[in-house]
Every structure is written in C-alpha cells, then in structure tokens.
Specification:
By secondary structure, the protein is of the alpha/beta class. It is 31% helix and 29% strand. It has 5 helices and 12 strands. The chain starts with a strand and ends in a 12-residue tail after the last helix.
Length: 217
C-alpha cells in the first residue's frame, strides 16, 4: 500500500484530479494515486512542478510535502497551519516519540471505542500477516494507547485484494518485546553495525527507505 511518494524525474508535474494525485511527464499522465493512500510527497530534484490544488488538498488531509537535497535530507516542508484532526493526531504522535518512545507512525485507520482503541493496517497483497506486519500494527497500537489513554489489546490487518481481515490479539509481553527490539535497533545504528537481512527485491520495493539503501541490489 502506497504511503510515501518519491519524485526524482526532471519535468514531472504533480496535480490533482478529484481525490487523486496525478503524476505527468511531457503532458502525458503516467500514474494516479488516491490521496487517502499517501502520507508524504518527497521531491528529490529541481524542475518538478506542483499544482496549487494539490498543495491545498495535501494540506487539508495532513499530507506533508518535503523538498530533499542531494543527500536525501529534507530542507523544506509544506504542511497545514490548520488544527484539524489529522494534524492533531500527528502532533500527538511526535510528542509521544520525544517523551516516551523511539518510534512514531500513522496507522491506516484507528477504531476508537469508549474504553479501547483498535489500530487497522491495510495491505494490498497477502493472506497471512507476516511478523513485520504484526510488529508494525503493534507499534501503532502502543502509540495510540498512549495518545488516547485507552486500552490496546486487539488490532486488525486487512488484505485489500482478498477482502480478508485478520484480528491480531495483543498482550503486555508483546508490547515490552517491541520496545526492547527498537532499543536494540537504535543501538545497532549508533554502532553502525550492519544486521543480517534476508530482504529480497520484492520486499525492498515496498520499503520507504529504499532510496537510502539502494545499493542492496
């Protein structure tokens, strides 16, 4: 499922049609992506144009637009000044990472009841949740539990192509294991220690860090 869009082709034009991002080159539309699937748009080079309609639509939906330098480091961002629900949720999550956890994120959907929160993660393909997908859902739930001060013991992974929804039960031990794992990952980054990876080209295509790790293949 699309989350972060990266554009690096000179002359590309980004526009909006209805509730979709349109990507065109030389007047020919190459791709459409539903805005509901996008969390950020990242501009990696100069010579790329954006329509004001797209900028406004992203602002209203809480989608950030980043301009990156040659090192793929963001030097400019466009975001809304409005205090809408999406913006408030994201702000709360950034406050959470600063005070308690070393991770952050926005789940695809969040069901909120009187006493509980239920994060929902939507995947395009698959029939059985992977360990990574379960951990992603777990991380979202931990953040939402902190933000909304409601109990988190159940989440859902939805496979869009198969219209299949898998409930994932969560316990306190799993939450602690995730926090410990994140700390280990951060320690590895600090020590610049490269972990073993069984990643394949298919897996890496879906990774939002592919631009930073494109020497794998």
């Amino acid at each position: 499922m699309t989350k972060h869009i990266y554009i690096d082709d000179y002359g590309t034009f980004l526009g909006k049609t209805s509730a979709r991002l349109t990507i065109s080159q030389n007047g020919e539309q190459k791709k459409e992506v539903a805005l509901s699937r996008i969390k950020s748009i990242n501009i990696l080079k100069g010579g790329i144009s954006l329509s004001s309609d797209l900028i406004e639509a992203c602002s209203l939906r809480g989608i950030k637009i980043f301009f990156l330098d040659f090192k793929n480091v963001a030097h400019t961002s466009l975001s809304s000044t409005a205090s809408h629900a999406v913006a408030n949720t994201r702000r709360a999550q950034f406050l959470t990472i600063e005070s308690d956890f070393n991770f952050y994120g926005i789940c695809d959907a969040l069901i909120i009841s009187d006493k509980n929160i239920y994060p929902v993660e939507i995947k395009l393909h698959g029939t059985k949740p992977t360990k990574a997908q379960k951990m992603q859902l777990l991380a979202y739930g931990i953040l939402a539990e902190k933000i909304y001060k409601k109990e988190f013991n159940l989440g859902f992974i939805l496979f869009e192509k198969n219209a299949k929804t898998i409930p994932i039960e969560i316990n306190e031990n799993q939450k602690m294991q995730l926090v410990v794992l994140v700390d280990k990952i951060i320690e590895m980054i600090k020590k610049e220690k490269l972990p073993y990876s069984d990643a394949t080209e298919e897996k890496c295509t879906q990774c939002e860090f592919e631009n930073y790790c494109n020497d794998r293949f």
